[in-house]
Design a protein that fits this description.
The chain has a 3-stranded antiparallel sheet, covered by helices on one side. The protein has a two-stranded antiparallel sheet with strand order 2-3. It has 142 residues and is α+β, with helices and mostly antiparallel strands. The protein is built from 5 helices and 5 strands; from the N terminus they run αβααααββββ.
């Protein structure tokens, strides 16, 4: 049986050819974030979250749900960036360089603080229960 020569293509070129979007998803156990409001976790939290994110999460009754879902959001965004290929992998984005903010209607949106990422259009959606947090991110117009 003869096989045709198949040209290998990068993920980015396949995405461009199939609709110009990328997705990332992450699920976290909220229990990982319980009791992180103690001083022993403050250095760790500052490595992951911005001061605005921490202020927002700790203003809520159940801060662990909000920390977990924002961490899941950062992971979902990182998965999108990894899928874009070498251009983005050479200088990977750190967790604290992805800031999850809320718009005037309360909807979350990611902001990547590095200039080379300013033109990326990423939409994010969160959900959580008592035990599980999930984030789904979509990037359009690559």
């Amino acid at each position: 049986m003869r096989t045709k020569n198949v040209k290998k293509t990068s993920r980015l070129s396949r995405l461009k050819d199939t609709g110009r979007f990328a997705i990332g998803v992450d699920v976290e156990n909220i229990s990982r974030f319980k009791e992180m409001d103690t001083p022993s976790f403050s250095a760790f939290l500052r490595k992951i979250f911005t001061s605005k994110e921490l202020e927002y999460c700790f203003s809520k009754k159940n801060s662990s749900q909000h920390l977990a879902v924002r961490f899941a959001g950062k992971e979902a965004v990182i998965k999108i960036l990894r899928g874009l290929g070498e251009r983005y992998l050479k200088n990977p984005v750190g967790y604290s360089q992805i800031e999850i903010l809320n718009d005037k209607n309360g909807a979350p949106f990611p902001r990547i603080t590095l200039p080379k990422y300013k033109d990326l259009n990423i939409i994010i959606s969160f959900s959580h229960s008592k035990e599980i947090a999930i984030a789904f991110a979509v990037m359009i117009d690559i």
